[in-house]
Amino acid sequence: MADYYELLGLSHDADLEEIKKRYRKLAFKYHPDRNEGSKEAEELFKQVTEAYEVLRDPEKRSMYDRYGEQGLKGSAGPGGMGGFDFSDAIEIFMRDFGGFSGLEDFLGASGARTQRTASRKGKTIRMQVSLTLPEVAHGVKKTLRVSILGECEPCGGSGAKSGTKPVVCPGCGGAGEERHVQRSVLGQFVSVQPCQNCHGEGRIIQDLCNACRGEGRTRGDTEIEIEVPAGVTAENFLTLRGRGNVGPRGGPRGDLVVLLEIEDDPRFSRDGSDIFHELPITFSQAALGDEVQVPTIEGAAQVTIPAGIQSGDHLNLKELGLPDLNGHVRGDQIIRVVVWTPTDLNAQQEEALGSLRGVEALAPEQIRRRTHRGFWSRVKEAFTGG
User: Fold this and answer.
1) CB–CB of 174/202 below 8 Å?
2) Could you read off the pLDDT of 170-195 as tens digits, one per residue?
3) How many structural domains compose the chain?
4) pLDDT value for 245
5) The domain that contains 312 carries what CATH number?
6) Domain of 51: which CATH number?
7) Residues of the chain with confidence (pLDDT) below 50
């Protein structure tokens, strides 16, 4: 895919008005209805529309400027899973420019039919998938069982009884719309409304299919495999283009949007690509040091506790956190040490601690931390939510 700015002939500092103006000009130029159905024109129409849909949205444009097309993965619209097809391009074109007067004369009658086809697109299906932190760390393939409206087999999606076909609406002659002319002292006003007889479809089914009752679609369960990339968050979602419900009576399929939910893991808290683990230790471990095992996403890891560590100090396990969604950098696992104070001592423990009190030094007025204040603030916020 060419650079989006080059496709539209724009500079990187172009404003929204310039983007809309340039896209409108190119979209009319490459629209298939003005190019006798040329596949080359259809592809160019799709490409300039995809570029427009990204650059018109400040958030998508920012991601594209920073990371290119890779930065758009996992988002809705262009760059989401399943790609960007011609029906998406038509829907976007009609959404933003379908209201211009003279559009039908400009595109011809087939342009009006294209608009009606886009309007019958099946509804988007939304579903939720839960992920564990190890799945977030490495990415995962999951198989989803989804209830979807698919094409009715007996009627082939037409909605008409087997052996029959829909007929052209006598009310609108297949146009799918009615024009009403009103005259007043100010002049002549023309209003266009969907045909009341065929509800804007341009055809009428005289004998309904017994299986779908004229809908042209029936519901059934199907399995869909999705691939979740590593490093996702609950703010990300996957869009599978054309994998949702089929539209009524031959309309194109809608999309399937998969919302991601990250399961809570009592061992860790997360801050971006870094994860945090709280490690309680005893007085003697803090004073004398020790070797302990701690949980990580990859399994248990051996950690050295240095002698004299203070409660609240942290230890870093490099690159044992989560990967960055838009790159190859992996975060750290940060271990926050908490010195545990026993509350229920037996006689032997009281005697031992009494002997220690007789020889230990007084606590300093201020304890020097092993980390600087800025980073400690991040650690504190991760555990307190502050």
Assistant:
1) yes
2) 888 888 888 777 776 666 676 778 88
3) 2
4) 93
5) 2.60.260.20
6) 1.10.287.110
7) 76-82, 99-110, 112-119, 372-376
**CA–CA distance from 217 to each of 157, 160, 224, 249, 264 (Å)?**
6, 11, 19, 7, 40
HSE-CB for 382 with a 13 A CA cutoff:
23
Q: Specify the pLDDT at position 82.
A: 45
Q: Give the separation between CA 304 and CA 286, rounded to whole angstroms.
A: 11
In angstroms, the CA 40 to CA 157 distance is 29
Q: Assess if residue 325 is contained within a domain.
A: yes
Bridge partners (DSSP) of residue 221 are 147
**How many Cβ atoms from other residues are within 10 Å of residue 241's Cβ?**
19
**pTM greater than 0.85:** no
* Sign of the alpha-carbon torsion through 80, 86, 88, 92: positive
> Domain limits at 286?
269-384
Place of tokens 């005259």: 183
DSSP designation for 385: -
- CB contact at 8 A, 210 and 125: no
Q: Tell me, what's the pLDDT at 69?
A: 75
**3-state DSSP helix/strand/coil % of the chain, to nearest 5:** 30, 25, 40
